[in-house]
Amino acid sequence: MTQSIYGAQDGGVPITGVQYEIAAGPYRAVVTEAGGGLRELTHQGRPLVLSHGADEAVPVALGQLLVPWPNRIDGGRYAYDGRVHQLDLSEPKNGCAIHGLVRHAPWTVTAHGADRVLLAHELMGHPGYPYRLSLEIAYALDAEQGLTAVLTARNIGTRTAPYGHGAHPYLTVDEPIDDCTVTVTADRRLPVDERMIPSGPAEDVTGTPYDLREGRELGGLRIDNAFTGLRRDGDGRAWVRLAGGGRTTALWADAAHPWLEVYTADQAPGDRRRRGLGAEPMTCPPNAFATGIDVIHLEPGAQATGSWGIMSG
Length: 313
What we know:
Helix content is 1%, strand content 42%.
């Protein structure tokens, strides 16, 4: 096992914890102890995702894992199995609970080789989420296929748990995304209100600026929506592609993810604003715990698994 700690001042440990580096052929990645997040991914030394410093508080959820729910829960309030639960409002601005409970928690490495790393975390019961989950994230690099990530959750508690997950990478070709072509193989888009809560059912993208199925230059279009009705290739994968400056960065998601959040990074700080495209595979849509849409009912002893990946070209 090898591991690296770097990026901290005065010889201390950086705030995102131990940094685990893996590599294969032209690909290199760095995964953090904090949240089991993907901090860096490069191809031939050029970034495929927006990154952050090892000793920097993670802005706009760059590369983080979203468990046990992705996106927002309106008011942090939901009912499940005859009980009403109230989560902490981790996004006070919109009065929402956002992106789950593990983004900043320490994950323990259980295996680390030259081209792969496996981390685990046990989620204890939280206010508003009185369930126990054993989580595992495996990142692997391949010289041809790039990065594959596999996230597994197992219910080690005593009651059936509502469950969903997502991931939050921002694809980049190291160019402003306004000048890039974006392709999303999705037939429908979920509208949202001013608080980013779904305002109605998913709508057909045909004839709208959000029809990205054949690829379109982004220009000034602002997007922060979940897409569904995903068209998949022969391997069951749905794709998001960002092309510009002679480069293409692509993300795929398996059938465990019927939703893809697409975000044009309009609120990203500083020079990250609109330099990357949030492409977030999700097992359920925003506010799923409140609506019940695509929530996984994880029984004691059962597990849920989903995979996604990122590659150049």
